[in-house]
Amino acid sequence: MSARRLTVVQTLPALDSGGVERGTLEIARALVEAGHRSIVVSRGGRLVERLEAEGSEHVALPVDRKSPMALLQVRRFRRLVAALAPDVVHARSRLPAWIAWFALRGMPTAARPAFVTSVHGLYSVSAWSAIMTRGDLVEVVSETARRYVLDSYPACPPERLRVIYRGVDEAEFPWDYRPDADWLARWESECPQLGGRRVLTLPGRISRLKGHEAFIRLIGRLRGAGTPVHGLIVGGAERGKERYLAELRSRVREAGLVADISFTGLRGDIREIFSRSDLVLSLSEKPESFGRTALEALALGVPVVGWARGGVGEILAELFPAGEVAPGDEEALCARVRSLLAEPQRPVRRDGRFSRAAMCAQTLELYREVAG
Fold first, then answer.
1. DSSP string, 290-333
2. Residue 10, number of CB atoms within 10 A of its CB
3. What is the pTM of this model?
4. Domains of the chain
5. What average pLDDT does range 213-220 have in this prediction?
């Protein structure tokens, strides 16, 4: 436990699902376990119950509404900060960051907490996104994210940046994990089409940037080459993305792949699905700042094949170089997948660097540094 008990406010749009949300809960839990006071400000969502059960507090504010009305939250946020007297306010998304920044600017210097921001994504370069580089310290989730900030926002001093990789809980995603018999029985009942086939899984929300179309073409190439595979598209369509999901289903039908590709929708058992996959794919059309799902699969010992760029490229270079493919080269992708199915290889088992424990320890050290 630190000699000084800190009060830390994290703020983000909502607590529903996603990597930023999971990271917020992980840091909140680490703060509580270390004896600090943890508060999260968001619109709310299904993860609030879990957050509070783990010892943190939640304050509901509509910090997710992208309209001029959002500025009305600045005064409410300032009053909240004055009442809570936190040592650190940590903004994890752009709109909450602007609200927090304006709120803190209106406070007396002596009463103003430290301001931390996190660059979780490679946002479009703009004055709107620049707020994520204005923290007293700026957490970046990979070397890719650090280079993005330095190249795109030269006004941000390099010494403010702290690289803290996202981490996987090795107890939640243990090496060589095997699902229990009940889950296996349900899975075989739900997915009889997988019998006798090698399983390729593409995880991620339904979005034009996640590489679903390249995945569909890959399954078509493999079937054409006589390789018995079945593709799983694991992820839900958020509001406004239903039309794209329908478009993907139509592409599958037009390609004659209805018997070869399944859409599972949003699942809460991704660990189990990964463990039953021969390969996991990461095919985002743009570089990602990190790539949590790739890391989760690799932590289980499941090989990942993906474009060698961005945060996913960093992870593959460290843990599974055999899975790297030149970005956009779909012929090479098909050849690499066929090679790994014919002669399977295992990822490197490396403790520490990409663990949740390391991420939490480094983040709490960042809070102590900036609060000091």
1. --HHHHHHHHTT--EEEESSHHHHHHHHHH-GGGEE-TT-HHHH
2. 26
3. 0.86
4. 7-167+355-371 (3.40.50.2000), 181-342 (3.40.50.2000)
5. 98
